[in-house]
Amino acid sequence: MKAVFLLLLCSLAVSQGTRPVRTTRPRPRPLPRPRPGPGPVRWNCREGPRLYGAMQIDAGMGQVVVADKYKRTYFLSGLAFYRLGRLGMKHVTVGAGGLWGSCHANKVYKYVAGDFKLAKGLSMHQVDAGGDGQIVGVGSCRHNAYCLKEETASGFCGRHTLNWTSLSRKMMYYSCGPRMGCWGVDKRHRIWVTKNISPTNCRTSGWTAVPGPRMKMIEVSSDGNVFGVTTTGRVYQRAGITNGRRQGTRWVYVPMCMPVRHLSYDLCNLWIVTTSGLIMKCSR
Hints:
By secondary structure, the chain is mainly β. It contains two helices and 24 strands. The chain has a four-stranded antiparallel beta sheet with strand order 1-24-23-22, with no helix packed on it. A four-stranded antiparallel beta sheet has the order 2-3-4-5, with no helix packed on it.
């Protein structure tokens, strides 16, 4: 039996050795996969100091101010918000040009000696003090964009009528920074940027349309960072902004756990107001 078994093994080996050898074609190398585009920017967000019913927030020069739905204005000190003045604003802003606001009647005010002083002149539904000393705003009637010269803004103490300079552009929301020009959103939710604006005479260097999602607001920080909120409450940051390319190169999505109403960025902190009135503080 052992001999028979060995004979079978030998015959099997011979039969396998006589089989024709199959030639296989070399498999083509797979093409390199395209590199994915920039993913969402990850921020560490936590609930900020409690303030019920927040509607709008602005951060600049290390300060944070908030307007709530009860027509009250607050500033942040430590871990709590404190009432700012006796009058309430629907939109408040702080920066190199001082602390300004517009009330629900669209009248403009500046914070002077512990309270808001009426700035007679044009009516504004939104103002911004984030530029290089100048104040910009959007008129309440025809949504024309205006600018207040640095010298006029810094010296105003509530005693005379302000003379605003027209910027020949209709906007719904307008924001400036001292380094990277001004950004705005028009009534059709399109995005615009101006390369430069002079704080001494409010002259601009022209406007450039920036493709992107439909925005309801946009903010520029003192270090040149640009953030926007879409009409659906999503947050985007503009990337690729340089001195030679003020409009940047692309929008980068910033995930948030809730829809956003308003935001502001200053000194590495992104401040968020959700549609439910919650304030969030985000950092990377």
